[in-house]
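Help! Submission page says 'invalid entity' but I think these are all valid:
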Amino acid sequence: MNDLAIHLTDEKGKHLYEQIYEYIADEIREGKLLAGEKLPSTRSLADYLQVARSTVELAYEQLLSEGYIESVPYKGYFICRVEELYRIRTDEDGESGRRKTQRPERAAEAAQKDCFSEKRERSFDIDFSPNAIDMSRFPFGTWRKITRDILSGDRTELFALGEPRGDAALRETVCRYLHASRGVNASPEQIIVGAGNDYLLLLLQYILGRDITAAFENPSYRRAFRIFSSFAAGTVTVPSDENGIRVDGLSASGADVAYVMPSRQFPTGTVMPIGRRTELLRWAAAAPGRYLVEDDYDSEFRYRGKPVPSLQSADTAGRVIYIGTFSKSVAPAIRISFMVLPEGLLGAYEKNCGFFSSTVSRIDQTILNEFLLSGAFERHLNRMRKAYREKHDLLLECLQPLLDRFRLSGEYAGLHVLLTSKDPAREESLLERAAACGVRIYGLKEAALAPFETDCATVLLGYGGLDQEKIREGVRRLDKAL
Amino acid sequence: MNDLAIHLTDEKGKHLYEQIYEYIADEIREGKLLAGEKLPSTRSLADYLQVARSTVELAYEQLLSEGYIESVPYKGYFICRVEELYRIRTDEDGESGRRKTQRPERAAEAAQKDCFSEKRERSFDIDFSPNAIDMSRFPFGTWRKITRDILSGDRTELFALGEPRGDAALRETVCRYLHASRGVNASPEQIIVGAGNDYLLLLLQYILGRDITAAFENPSYRRAFRIFSSFAAGTVTVPSDENGIRVDGLSASGADVAYVMPSRQFPTGTVMPIGRRTELLRWAAAAPGRYLVEDDYDSEFRYRGKPVPSLQSADTAGRVIYIGTFSKSVAPAIRISFMVLPEGLLGAYEKNCGFFSSTVSRIDQTILNEFLLSGAFERHLNRMRKAYREKHDLLLECLQPLLDRFRLSGEYAGLHVLLTSKDPAREESLLERAAACGVRIYGLKEAALAPFETDCATVLLGYGGLDQEKIREGVRRLDKAL
């Protein structure tokens, strides 16, 4: 079986795991490895190739997620039938087939899952996705009424292209909302409205330039990492501890920009205490051109204690770029996010990308503005907070029997909690055991930006999209399986 | 008067005109040049500085457009009151004040004007903007009804994030529409839906890479040029003739990508004949990595002869990237554009930016899809074509008395025509004379990507946004003034 003649090189920009992944994927595509064949265990292949076991695990994960291989609990990894693979015609430039085997629908699904690579298709009865939200409670009636009222006015101006930064009225409202709820200090001029976080992060290449090194915690929000990687001269991962990103590591990294989620780090759920925040702000202020990108993605949902104010609210040096979205709090399809720029960056914005047309229709901006102004948003948030808290509390109650084997963290906020095994355990094995009983849970390493080692696996259980019955039943099954 | 001690340098990346502009703007901001003072004429300053007169003209144009100076017909250029200037606080990095004096509202207005730098605010009775469209005929009723129907279904899935490329249903419809109306050959997989042309052009940095040199005609669509300039290793302008971009010039330029508008070049109105198209496609196919970006921005409006099929329809080598928008044909606020990628670029798209979330809400995509499928779009287009043709015909009729002095071009399509003076004339002077009688017309040089010389000025008259009475009255005034 160890006839995998993988030749690992120091090829620039290619991780070892990628090389292993590509070698095996090519072998499968070329029919050299046949359906049903068993792959060596991660341990034995790691021994054979003289690499860390986690490197092989990462390669296998990628193969699993792209449907090349499948994992059979207690048995190992097996090659899938290659006819099942979807192929996009090879392009004329003869680029490697990497990534092209992804099915378009799967790519879409992956994007929707936001930060987790998609798993091999498989049916799950219960999906503890940390990204799912509860759309069943969306106030369609209110939204519809606002839309109807706005469209009834024959307001021709709404069909005209608006300001690049977003409509003044919406920016004014967002500004007041952010100040009241998150302590954000800004004027409406500093707010840029855009169609989603991805788009706003893309704009940073024009505002900060591409000659930056961006630092991320590991694990972190993988999509943001990929976007920064797409334009920044460098990206680095920096160690973190129970208080969040380590500032000594950040200083040592040579980065000028750090992407952080102080209110609640994804996926770890860490809330950054004031001490670390101060350190971080001091780091940023210590040299010109240093900036902190604060992604305040789900600050709305906290179920205990006082809300944590934003990092931006404590920033006196103008070094925090604050990003927020209405995707979690209203609906993912709304496609309205916003960015608060420090005054010092407005010149660069105006000069380098201030002429880009707005990516959000004025009708949508007007509907959202009315949704906020009318109080409907606040009522909706309160309703959702209550609904999510009930799910959260129920989940915690159900998880009690597992707490002899697992340590719970990340509770009392957001839409997921984390379970860390007390005894050594492999993440993949936990996910597999859950999957075997029809339950999908998520691994911390799936949000890894670079391979990391841990003896005791951590899994994520999201509850936003599940009803009470599913939560009860899901945990019941997990209790037996894990 | 010639006390403008401008020191011109070969400073990297700074045009001479920029240096002149910055010097004068600084003098005004610092109060060294006072309101009411007269600037030297462009001729005398050009003599004094030993630069081309067009260089000084470009600097003055910029100053005019940003409200630093104003032009008084037959008298010259005068400094404006500095208190009228809007200032954004100077940022801490001590960046030059350039561009920061732009009023936000003006910036918005400029963006809306798409390709023309905004003029000093001034009241015009009649504005022959080439970018204005007639929104008074937008079928609000139909749009409202479709929206209501869609929102009434409690279709929760519409509020979920959709596929990065756009909803499959909409891509399918656009695909069929493009094939039927523009001869575009593509499968729905090749279509990327995005929030506006600017966004789609931005994606090209991921699909084509940044190591490209992009060629443009001069004049051309300035916004597209600025976007390419924001990421491409190089941008060049290439000579054009009455058939469009010159392929010998393109070959000589070393460019790999050319941005063209074969159906109707903006602003010249040139329709590229089949011979030049073939040459262009041959150029693209002659070397790997060469691509043509076809912006088919207002192909819908032709008033005589058969519609010109798209360049893409004749492309057998997969070298045309086709871009279209619903901004002109539906409404600018719809914010839905689309790009048709050659199959050979799908791999790069998928790999480098296929994970970016869609920038268009699913609700908007569904409304537009229904608008297209129901036949409402076709009816609307036919109605608009008729309305615009009537305006076009009336304009041509009214322009008869001017044709002793001007040569007409760019008629029978689009939403503007061009007038070129038969006798030597300066563009600025024509615009000024029109402005003096309350009529705003636009100069060809305002769409210049680089200064160009011409003895006989060309001005643009757009009619999309004007009613019959305005057209009549506007031309009456122009006849007297020019």
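Support: the input was valid. A stray whitespace character was the problem, and the output above is from the cleaned input. The radius of gyration of chain A is 23 Å.
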